[in-house]
C-alpha cells in the first residue's frame, strides 16, 4: 500500500511538472495578409491594373493616403515568449505602385530590414515649456480668472455668429 502512495505522488508531481513546462512555450501568431506566392507571382507590372490586382490578391492591408496611390500587403509572424513582450519574427511587405492611369507600375518586396526596434528612454516624454511644481499646478491660475472682464466693459462684438 505504501508503494502505491509513492507511485501516485510521483505521477501527480510529474504531471504537475509537465503542465508547468507546457505552459512556458512560446505563442506564435500570424497577423495581416496571408501570402500565396503563386497569386503574388501572377500579378505582373505593365499588364495588371487596380481592378485585376484586387481580384487576384484581394483588398490591400492599406493604401497610401498621400502622394501616389500605392497599395501595401503586410504579413507578420509574431512570437510571444513566456512572460515577455511579443517580437516580430518574420515580416513581408509588398508595395504595389500604380501609375496615373491605374496600371500596375512596379512591385517592391521588403522583409525584416523594415522592422524598427524602438527602446524609449525613461517613463516620461520631454515637452516644451516650463516645468511647474504641484503647487503651481494647483494655484497657478489664482487671480487670472476673470481678469479680462474686470470693469464691466467688453471688447467682444455684439453681433451673432452669422453677422446679425
TrEMBL record:
<dbReference type="GO" id="GO:0043165">
    <property type="term" value="P:Gram-negative-bacterium-type cell outer membrane assembly"/>
</dbReference>
<dbReference type="InterPro" id="IPR026592">
    <property type="entry name" value="BamE"/>
</dbReference>
<dbReference type="InterPro" id="IPR007450">
    <property type="entry name" value="BamE_dom"/>
</dbReference>
<protein>
    <submittedName>
        <fullName>Outer membrane protein assembly factor BamE (Lipoprotein component of BamABCDE complex)</fullName>
    </submittedName>
</protein>
<keyword id="KW-0998">Cell outer membrane</keyword>
<dbReference type="GO" id="GO:0051205">
    <property type="term" value="P:protein insertion into membrane"/>
</dbReference>
<dbReference type="GO" id="GO:0030674">
    <property type="term" value="F:protein-macromolecule adaptor activity"/>
</dbReference>
<keyword id="KW-0732">Signal</keyword>
<dbReference type="InterPro" id="IPR037873">
    <property type="entry name" value="BamE-like"/>
</dbReference>
<dbReference type="GO" id="GO:1990063">
    <property type="term" value="C:Bam protein complex"/>
</dbReference>
<feature type="signal peptide">
    <location>
        <begin position="1"/>
        <end position="19"/>
    </location>
</feature>
<feature type="domain" description="Outer membrane protein assembly factor BamE">
    <location>
        <begin position="32"/>
        <end position="107"/>
    </location>
</feature>
<keyword id="KW-0449">Lipoprotein</keyword>
<keyword id="KW-0472">Membrane</keyword>
<dbReference type="Pfam" id="PF04355">
    <property type="entry name" value="BamE"/>
</dbReference>
Amino acid at each position: 500500500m505504501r508503494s502505491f502512495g509513492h507511485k501516485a505522488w510521483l505521477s501527480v508531481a510529474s504531471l504537475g511538472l509537465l503542465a508547468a513546462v507546457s505552459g512556458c512555450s512560446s505563442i506564435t501568431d500570424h497577423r495581416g495578409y496571408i501570402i500565396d506566392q503563386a497569386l503574388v507571382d501572377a500579378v505582373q507590372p505593365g499588364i495588371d491594373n487596380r481592378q485585376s490586382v484586387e481580384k487576384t490578391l484581394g483588398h490591400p492591408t492599406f493604401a497610401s493616403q498621400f502622394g501616389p496611390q500605392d497599395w501595401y500587403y503586410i504579413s507578420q509572424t509574431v512570437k510571444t515568449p513566456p512572460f515577455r513582450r511579443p517580437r516580430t519574427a518574420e515580416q513581408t511587405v509588398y508595395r504595389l505602385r500604380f501609375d496615373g492611369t491605374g496600371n500596375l507600375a512596379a512591385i517592391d518586396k521588403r522583409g525584416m530590414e523594415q522592422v524598427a526596434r524602438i527602446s524609449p528612454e525613461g517613463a516620461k516624454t520631454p515637452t516644451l515649456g516650463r516645468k511647474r511644481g504641484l503647487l503651481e499646478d494647483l494655484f497657478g491660475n489664482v487671480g487670472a480668472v476673470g481678469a479680462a472682464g474686470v470693469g464691466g466693459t467688453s471688447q467682444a462684438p455684439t453681433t451673432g455668429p452669422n453677422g446679425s
